[in-house]
Amino acid sequence: MESILYFDEWxxxxxNGTWRSEFLDAVAPIWRNKYFWIPLxxxxxxxxxxxxxxxxxxxxxxAVLTVSVADTLSSKIIKPLVKRERPCRNEALATPAAVLINxxxxxxxxxxxxxxxxxxxxxxxxxxxxxLTYSKGLFLIWAASVSYCQVYVGVHYPIDITVGALIGSCxxxxxxxxxxxxxxxxxxxxxxxx
Length: 194
Fold this sequence. Notes:
Blueprint (H helix, E strand, L loop, with lengths): L1 H17 L3 H10 L6 H14 L4 H27 L29 H16 L10 H15 L5 H26 L11
C-alpha cells in the first residue's frame, strides 16, 4: 500500500507540477467547473425531449438518479470512511501542490467530480449512444478530461480520480441497463416533430 501511495504522489507531482502549461493553467479551473457544462446538459435533455418525447421523463429521472447515487456514494460514504487529505492540504508532499482553485472542504478519496462525471457519461453512452454512433466516445473523453483537471488544479491525486471513474462507470452502466430494460432509446424510436 505504501508503494502505491508513493507512486500516486509521484504521478501527482508530474501532472500538477512538471507538466504544467500556461494554457492549462487558464483552462483547467473552468473546464472542471460543473456550471460550465450546464449548456451541454440542456442540449442533451432538449435533444431527448424533442426526439424521444415518451422517454424524456424517465431519462431525466434516471440521469438525476445516476448523479445522486454517484455523489452520495463518493461524498457521503467513501470519503468519510477513507479520510484521505487532499493534496492541496498535504504539507508532506515532496513538491508542494500548485493549487489553482479553492482547496475545498472534505476529503480527497474518491473524487466526486470523477465519480459523477463518469457516472453520467456512461449513462449517456449506454442510453443515447446508439443514436450518436460517431460521437458517443466523446462522453468518456469529456469525463476523463474533467477528472484530469481535478489533479491539475491540485485538489485530487490520480488514484482518487481513477477509483472514482471506475465506481462512477459502474453506476452509470447499471442505471443505463435498468433504463434500457423499459425505455431503450434506439434510432427507430425517433418520432416526427409536428
